[in-house]
Amino acid sequence: MACKIPNPPARSRPGPAFFSYSPPMSKLPSMPFLRRTIALALVGVAGLAALGAEQQPARKKLLFLTHAGLYKHTSLGPAEKAVIELGKAGGFDVTTAEGYKQAAEKLDFAFFTPEYLSGFDGLMLMTNGNLPMTDAQKKALLDFVASGKGFIGAHCAALTFYNYPEFGDMLGGYFRRSIRQNAIGVLKVEDPNHPATKMLGGSWPVVDEFYHFGTAPWDAARPKDNIDVLFGNHIPMGFSRDRVHVLLSLDTAKTNIEGMPDVVKGGDYPQAWTRDYGKGRSFYTSLGHRDDIWSNDPVFRAHINGGIRWALGIEN
Hints:
CATH class: Alpha Beta
Strand order of the largest sheet: 2-1-3-5-11-10-9-7-8
Radius of gyration: 24 Å
Number of strands: 11
Strand content: 15-25%
Shape: globular
Largest sheet: 9 strands, mixed
Number of domains: 1
Low-confidence stretches: 11-29, 31-45
Distance between the termini: 40 Å
Helix content: 25-40%
CATH architecture: 3-Layer(aba) Sandwich
Number of helices: 7
């Protein structure tokens, strides 16, 4: 299927309409009076414009890509729809490419250039696999974020670009294995004041898929460690709390971990975090596997909306 190239967002809006009225010549006021009146009118218009600008800050522009190079989640379509809906009230406009509709062998990123990205304030990925981008395009992605823009990674974004560790550095880590799908997990809220977690209280019981992330680069001397167990990708860098600000982690004291591989009581299993990258902001959440969590779960939608708004600089 051919790529649907998303149109770049418009950066300006037409001004308000003005109407004029021409009185009869006999009723025209004197020129000095007109000059004073026009001057006062201009001051008033300028004041109204300034007031309007203060009351209605410019909406942010978000590009959301959902290309699947390894595994096509059924939640990609609902995710696009949900983020568009959230943006209407959240202060951001969303452009999508409907990449999830493309076959893995026909993914097309020809549109992804620095010039195209310049029309956006943030980039959101719910992608996976070593996407067919050139080195220049990958660099453009990182330069975009480092220049002061926002990045949001959802769920399978942590399975993207195993062949480009610079991306993992910006994101914060790489997927190693699924802890459990469609199971109840209790997440510990480590930062209750962040826009992505302030609605959660001290903990959040949620049914979804949780991730375990690689802790070190893959080493041939230990071939079974730090490898993506689903697809065999070698993890090029390890997750470290020292490099990110953790928002949510799996609370093993409150979660039934029976049947969860590689999970032990008291273990450390972060699930959402933020990271400063250059002048930009990076937000990641492992959640978002299920279709209905995007469409019907108001708590999750508030979580993802808060993360997007933070990354875009709308909310701190």
